[in-house]
């Protein structure tokens, strides 16, 4: 959804993929491989240029696990892999990108298929060329790069194109040395790119996957004469809403939401819904997450974001938009969430237990070490809390705690052992400080055992 709406890829185009370690580059690559095979009848070629052997092996293993590679029936595999990793001589590393491209040309011209060509990492192709140039005794150019940098890059990039039979669309991971975008290697690459997809660590930390940054990702395709007026208008309004939310975040962090104007509060609420609706369950991640993957067409994507922007869905909770396919799934999820509203909460405070029902008077209170019980319809959820703070108001309750464990997640044997150790430590405690610490540890241990007993 996020790529289709905000940074669309051109058939036969070149896309730069920017992102650090652990933000979901590999999973995004695998999902694109899966989608081009299933939805477009295409095939993919992966060129590992000068990267770590371990990463190449990990990618191969993950592709086997997710079903992108089928070793039992090779004909069902959706990808060809070609590697020239960093332990290879510079000549091999320089040629591996061209080898992958030749494979892609075979699938395009002979099999007449649409091909996705992944190059990881295009910077290593330039680096290998620089080493070869030095071995040949050529005079280095700017920043020590080869004098033939533009020619070599052009000889690779200009072969990536469409014909009447099929197309090669290339997605290239771009390493930016020292985060310097003016470095000749990334700067030469940028001249050839049609779109950039930037993966954000901040979004990944929020659990929003794919963690594509909607404001930093760009595409030359996003023009009204290419994508149409409706698509362009919707994309621009989504970006404006998210940009306004970004500007307001400092004010929210310092003064809170209550200090914003009514209009800004509405913008923030819609931006948070948009942010969550940009997430999507992946087919290749299904084996890890347990939630089935969703494929959403462009028309459905535009319709969903238009409904959020129009204000028609302002009454729905923002968690209803998280990790769903189209907008109809979000509204269905909202109905389920409505049915699962909390009916009652019992928590431990310094002055004893308090019960909180809907429409409770606003209060703020310290939370003691003890049991938190939440009633969802006719079921009780029991948790062991290790102290914190609770705020009740506007028919909502926020509980901030130092530590919390579901009773069902606690190992009874381990909890009993911890209790016995805590009791022994209290008997051995010397001095006021040790006694206080041992007492606290004992209370925590007793709370965990109590949580288990309540469930059983």
Protein topology:
Layout: H1 2-6, E1 14-18, H2 25-40, E2 43-49, H3 53-66, E3 79-84, H4 90-109, E4 114-120, H5 122-135, H6 149-157, E5 167-173, H7 184-190, E6 195-198, H8 201-206, E7 218-219, H9 224-227, H10 229-255, H11 262-277, H12 286-289, H13 298-310, H14 327-339, E8 342-349, E9 352-356, E10 363-376, E11 379-393, E12 396-401, E13 404-406, H15 412-428, H16 431-455
Parallel strand pairs: 1-5, 1-6, 2-3, 2-4, 4-5
Antiparallel strand pairs: 6-7, 8-9, 8-10, 10-11, 11-12, 11-13
Helix pairs in contact: 4-5, 10-11, 10-13, 15-16
Written as H for each helix and E for each strand, in order along the chain, the element string is HEHEHEHEHHEHEHEHHHHHHEEEEEEHH
- Low-confidence spans: pLDDT under 50, at least 5 residues? none
| Count of DSSP H/I helices | 16
Radius of gyration, taken over Cα atoms and rounded to an integer in Å:
28 Å
Percentage of β-strand residues: 15-25%
**What's the helical proportion of residues?**
40-55%
Subcellular location: Membrane
Domain AAA+ ATPase: 11-203
Enzyme class: translocase
GO molecular function, one term: ATP binding
């Amino acid at each position: 959804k996020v790529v289709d709406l905000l940074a669309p890829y051109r058939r036969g185009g070149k896309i730069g993929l920017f992102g650090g370690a652990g933000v979901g580059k590999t999973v995004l690559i695998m999902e694109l491989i899966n989608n081009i095979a299933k939805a477009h009848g295409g095939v993919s070629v992966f060129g590992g240029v000068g990267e770590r052997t371990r990463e190449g092996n990990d990618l191969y293993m993950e592709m086997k696990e997710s079903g992108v590679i089928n070793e039992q029936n090779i004909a069902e595999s959706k990808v060809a892999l070609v590697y020239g990793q960093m332990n290879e001589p510079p000549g091999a590393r320089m040629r591996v990108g061209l080898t992958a491209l030749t494979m892609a040309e075979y699938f395009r011209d002979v099999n007449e298929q649409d091909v996705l060509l992944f190059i990881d990492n295009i910077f290593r192709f330039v680096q290998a060329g620089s080493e070869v140039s030095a071995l040949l005794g050529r005079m280095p150019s700017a920043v020590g790069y080869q004098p033939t940098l533009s020619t070599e890059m052009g000889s690779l990039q200009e072969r990536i194109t469409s014909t009447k039979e099929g197309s090669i669309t290339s997605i290239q991971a771009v390493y930016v040395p020292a985060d310097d975008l003016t470095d000749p290697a990334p700067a030469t690459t940028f001249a050839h790119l049609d779109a950039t997809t930037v993966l954000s660590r901040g979004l990944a930390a929020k659990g929003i996957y794919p963690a594509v940054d909607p404001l930093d990702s760009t595409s030359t395709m996003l023009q009204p004469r290419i994508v149409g007026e409706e698509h362009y208008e919707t994309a621009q309004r989504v970006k404006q809403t998210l940009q306004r939310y970004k500007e307001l975040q400092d004010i929210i962090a310092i003064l809170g939401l209550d200090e914003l104007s009514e209009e800004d509060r509405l913008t923030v609420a819609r931006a948070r819904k948009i942010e969550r609706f940009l997430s999507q369950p992946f087919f290749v991640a299904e084996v890890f997450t347990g939630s089935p993957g969703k494929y959403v067409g462009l028309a459905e994507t535009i319709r969903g974001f238009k409904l959020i922007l129009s204000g028609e869905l302002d009454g729905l909770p923002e968690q209803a938009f998280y990790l769903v396919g189209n907008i109809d799934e979000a509204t269905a999820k909202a109905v389920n969430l409505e049915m699962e509203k909390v009916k009652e909460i019992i928590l431990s405070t310094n002055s004893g237990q308090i019960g909180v029902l809907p429409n409770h008077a606003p209060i703020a209170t310290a939370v003691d070490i003890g049991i938190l019980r939440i009633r969802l319809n006719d079921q009780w959820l029991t948790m062991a809390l290790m102290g914190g703070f609770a705020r009740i108001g506007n028919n909502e309750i926020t509980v901030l705690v130092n530590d919390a464990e579901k009773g069902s997640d606690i190992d009874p044997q381990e909890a009993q052992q911890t209790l016995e150790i805590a009791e022994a430590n209290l008997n051995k405690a010397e001095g006021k400080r040790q006694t206080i610490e041992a007492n606290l540890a004992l209370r925590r241990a007793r709370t965990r055992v109590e949580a288990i007993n309540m469930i059983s």
